[in-house]
Design a protein that fits this description.
About 80% of the residues lie in helices and about 0% in strands. By secondary structure, it is mainly alpha-helical. It is flat, with a radius of gyration of 20 Å. This is Protoheme IX farnesyltransferase.
Length: about 300
Amino acid sequence: MRQDAAVWNGGMGSVSDYVALLKPRVMSLVIFTAFVGLMLAPGSVHPVLGAVAILCIAIGAGASGALNMWYDADIDQIMSRTRKRPIPAGKITREEAFAFGMTLSVGSVVLLGLLVNWFAGAFLAFTIFFYVVIYTMWLKRSTPQNIVIGGAAGAFPPMIGWASVTGGVSVESFALFLITFMWTPPHFWALALFKSGDYRAAGIPMLPVVAGETSTRHHILVYALLLAPVGAGPYFLGFASPVYGAASALLGLTFVAMAADVWRKREGDAARLACVRLFKFSIFYLFMLFALLLGESLIVGV
């Protein structure tokens, strides 16, 4: 009924409601990883153009979030984690969210292309398309591998930041992509384990719903084992110091230990706590890897 009222009234969204459409927490991660990619890229870019590039990437990420909420409004109102979002809460209509997202998408891509370079602009356009069409419209509702494949969209920003400086991509930028790409499945599966009821009710084939919790725990542990050496990749490729190598190894081993804890604890509050701890630590893990890379780039540049 609240959604119907919003349609009739043309929406009642405030500025904060439109900000919520942008998924600001996700956007903050995108901004940070894109900035690290831009700072690590060889060569230089004018500070104003660098700021424009990061702003456009941030707007593009927000546009993707708005279009995701537009398309997923039907399932968002079912899930406890998402039912307070602006559309299911009746504050913004689907039509308004779609128009908002499309306007930001086109604007961010065109601005990045015109002011920075068209390779970066095209890469941003592809990333928005991948997240909205490939992941949201297709993979999310059709396969338990939705997060595995769809996670690429969230891993592209450091490559776009890199491309904003160089006009292309490289092995180093792909290494940055690979860290987030391999991190995404265990991060989201830890959340899905204790929110599986929501996904089941919404008909979303997340791994715990389709394959069961035991299989999901196996997958989390395997991905954690694969992520640990990938996280140290910048050191092995020679664009990070031994300090980064040692820190990334320690963080990776901790990630594996916490994933093993999720694998061992399978019932009751202990199992739920293990999942929550891994989910929270995974955010810290990714932040620390990119923060270390950023810190080293700033020290070298001094």
